[in-house]
Amino acid sequence: MLKRVLIANRGEIAVRIIRECLDSSIEAVSVYSTADSQALHRIIATRSVCIGGPRAGESYLNAANIIEAAKATGCDAVHPGFGFLSESSDFARSCEEAGLKFIGPPSKVIDMMGDKAAAKRMMRQAGVPVVPGSDGIAQTADDAEKEAERIGYPVLLKAAAGGGGRGMRRACCKEEVKDAFEAARAEAESCFGNGDMYVEELIENPRHIEFQILGDSFGNVIHLGERDCSIQRRNQKLLEEAPAWGLSEKLRGAMGEAAVKAAKACGYENAGTVEFIVDKDDNFYFIEMNTRIQVEHPVTEAVTGMNIVREQLRIAAGMPLSRTQEEVQICGHAIECRITAEKVFENFAPCPGRIDFIHFPAGAGIRVDSALYNGCEISPYYDSMVAKIIAKGSSRLEAVRRMRRALEETVINGVQTTLPVQHLLMYQQDFLRGGYDTGFIEAHLPELLAIYEAAGGKDESI
To answer: Of all helices (H) and strands (E), which one includes residue 312?
Structure first.
């Protein structure tokens, strides 16, 4: 059994994991940067260790300092959360070599699936449909340009070690490839410490559907149904829901089988996500596997009743999955809004600062995951997401109504957030009909911002 776990992350996901450890009678050790000395994840942990300066490269991406902190505090496992080092095979390998259980798949699996180009080759061999693209890494912008010419425009330049929408740029013609390649590579190096890039065909405005999978050390693999993550801006998800609205049972079944097949092909262990895109003709394609817990895991927990972080801890402790595939039942509908501290009228620029006052919603079917508290500081050094609000109902309409009410109850003073725009989205007719794709926000954001601006830059219902 696990006795003490180091959480190699920050913010709401660190808080979520710490709470789950404590609920499971496992001591939780947090790490923090000098910028996070008053952060909630440092305060509530059993113990906390400062691992470096404010920039991620000095702290949350400093694998050596994190490993040393785990060893110095007598931890027997490390949970990476999402982002930062969560999909770094080098970090997982360092944990293994230090005698620490990495709460995620083995390093060799992260190697296989972390290289997105290699992962696609493996999926082809396993019979899982993939998006056409390069077979290997594009070392230079010239290489990317040659691949783009071969594949045909438009193309998507993607970080081989990426995730969370980072390290991705589109190019619609030859002249756009170099700038897109350099921008995506720079972002990938900053976020993941790896600037390797590959190229794939850009399927215009598909639906982004992903399947949550779990695998234990006994070879059991199950999926927990799908999430629709198509409401995105610049490849960053703004809202997710489960199950996907309007997906036929035939398509849902085929995608679920493909997700399990993908996980078994690489010998997957622990929690992960198999991501697909679905085109206008209901053809689906594997795009990547995220070898970590996802930001949007709460919507899956809401409709399945399974505690995914607890399952991660159980698997890491050598226990089997708590349910078989036949025992997984989808009940009701759940929606998650990612609230970010951003200036919506300034191209969604980050808006760090001090939280003067905060009030989160409660009541039937509402869950909030956040690390905010009154008087805390939102740092300019990290991701701008400050809270996740999850609403569950017996139907999609009930979930939408509860989300409206939850967003209306939420008060975040001191910084600007995306809250008003997401509230307006809950009344947008095309969204309510559920027939949206990844082009939805680009098409409808001007309309939402115009309504917000007409109200004096304030959604009066909030």
So the answer is: helix 308-316
How far is residue 373 CA from its own chain's centroid? 23
- Mean pLDDT over all residues of the chain? 94
40 lies in some domain? yes
pLDDT of 48 higher than 70? yes
Q: Which helix (H) or strand (E) holds 221?
A: strand 221-233
Distance between CA atoms of residues 356 and 353, nearest Å: 9
Are the beta carbons of 241 and 300 closer than 8 angstroms?
no
Cβ 232 vs Cβ 179: under 8 Å: no
What is the band of 461 on the pLDDT scale with cuts at 50, 70, 90? Answer: very low
Overall average pLDDT of the 204-208 stretch: 94
Looking at the structure, tell me whether residues 183 and 213 fall in a common domain: no
Q: Are residues 61 and 159 in the same domain?
A: no
> For residue 329, how many other CB atoms are within 10 A of its CB?
11
Which strands form 155-159's sheet, in the order they lie side by side?
Answer: 168-171, 155-159, 197-201
Does residue 224 lie in a domain region? yes
Name the domain count of the chain: 3
Q: How many CB atoms lie within 10 A of CB 38?
A: 12
Q: Which of 329, 406, 426 is nearest to 361 (CA)?
A: 406
Please state the rounded mean pLDDT for residues 177-184.
94
Strands (E), 279-346: 284-290, 333-340, 342-343
Q: What is the pLDDT of residue 163?
A: 65
Pairing relation of β-strands 101-102 and 77-79? parallel
Helix (H, G, I), strand (E, B) or coil at 321: coil
Closest by CA position to 24, among listed 368, 367, 313 = 313
pLDDT band at residue 273 under the 50/70/90 scheme: very high
Are 374 and 360 contacting, i.e. CB atoms less than 8 angstroms apart?
Answer: no
Pairing of strands 207-215, 221-233: antiparallel
Structural domain that includes position 136:
132-201
Residue 8 lies in a domain: yes
Average pLDDT over residues 310-338: 98
Distances (CA, A) of 179 to 96, 169, 182, 236: 38, 9, 5, 20
Beta bridge partners of 102: 78
Residue 122 lies in a domain: no
User: Tokens in use for 394?
Assistant: 């017996």
Q: What pLDDT score was predicted for residue 418?
A: 96
Residue 117, pLDDT > 80, answer no
Q: Are residues 89 and 162 in the same domain?
A: no
278 and 340: one domain?
Answer: yes
- Within this chain, do residues 348 and 392 fall inside the same structural domain, yes or no? yes
Q: Which of 201, 218, 243 is the last residue of a domain?
A: 201
**In the predicted model, is pLDDT for residue 127 greater than 50?**
yes
pLDDT tens-digit readout, 401-430: 999 999 999 999 999 999 999 999 999 999
Q: How far apart are CA 246 and CA 108, in angstroms?
A: 37
| Residues acting as catalytic residues | 292
